[in-house]
Amino acid sequence: MLLRRGLLVTRGPLLSLASNWTPQRPRAARTSVSSSMADPSPAASKKVKMAICQLLVTADKEENIKCARKAIEDAAKQGSSIVVLPEMWNCPYSNDSFPTYAEEVPSPGPDSPVAPATSTSPSVSMMADVSRQCGVTLVGGSIPECSNGKLYNTCCVFGSRGSLLGKHRKTHLFDIDIPGKIRFMESDTLTAGDKLTVVDTDVGRLGIGICYDIRFPEMALLYAKAGVQIIVYPGAFNTTTGPAHWEVVQRARAVDCQLFVVTCSPARQEGAGYQAWGHSTAVGPFGEVLATCGHEQATVFVELDLAQVERRRENMPFMRQRRADLYSLTGEAAKP
Ligand SMILES: O=C(O)CCC(=O)C(=O)O
After folding, report:
1. pTM for this model (two decimals)
2. Is 63 a catalytic residue?
């Protein structure tokens, strides 16, 4: 895609965003639905209770798994139907750690094999087990995945019966160099994923991105086009780009796409090689920050009314107002 004299010029097969951009309802959504007489909007409320677990990640993998399990169980006890974990929650965020902490991840599917607790994929089996036991949808942050001699930064999404519904491999690797501030080259160890990931769950239709993926609005727009209601970005911004961009990119994606944006960071670990920004957040489809936190370990509880996605799009129909004669977007977020 080229930006030339104010024109967005695309190459390859076009996927026009100008017409027929009606959000699709998720298949088999089992969101609790209640209508409110006081609400003049035709869209009934569809409320989803979410917990965003900003975990303190240590070098002790077993401890990280125990701590994540407890946070999920506590969130379920408090009535959450969907729980989100941070990027790289089972290992320190460093190129040295990724190969050592990596696990195999099975292919998604309703009957995906759930690895027993003694397997070589203890993080994956814990997530499958606890989501089934607690009956929650789980967006499992990310962990390093090993597959055919390559490493990926991978997010697993589990349904409330413990099956692996989807996995997203981070598509934009975090390779940046801000002299005197931060240099990180994920591509030294990781390979980029090659697809966008839309997952239908009990609570709604999710689009998944990981951290640096949030900086690419085209990806979020394709998710909106695919009928996604919530984009979840497990992410670990840092103390340079975090204060500058973390909140603004979330609000920008939410406003551009008129959907919910949720981020989940690790807590900041004093003395760690990588200083995470924290501030896990949920943003509504009008760009409003609904809930957030600081940089310490915390669980953010938030209720998302998914009916707001339709309401905002009725109020301000950007989707129908796009100018396909002037610009369009290539690519596809495959529907599940
Ligand atoms: O985009 C940024 O500033 C940070 C991204 C990042 O930390 C990551 O992708 O892991």
Report:
1. 0.86
2. no
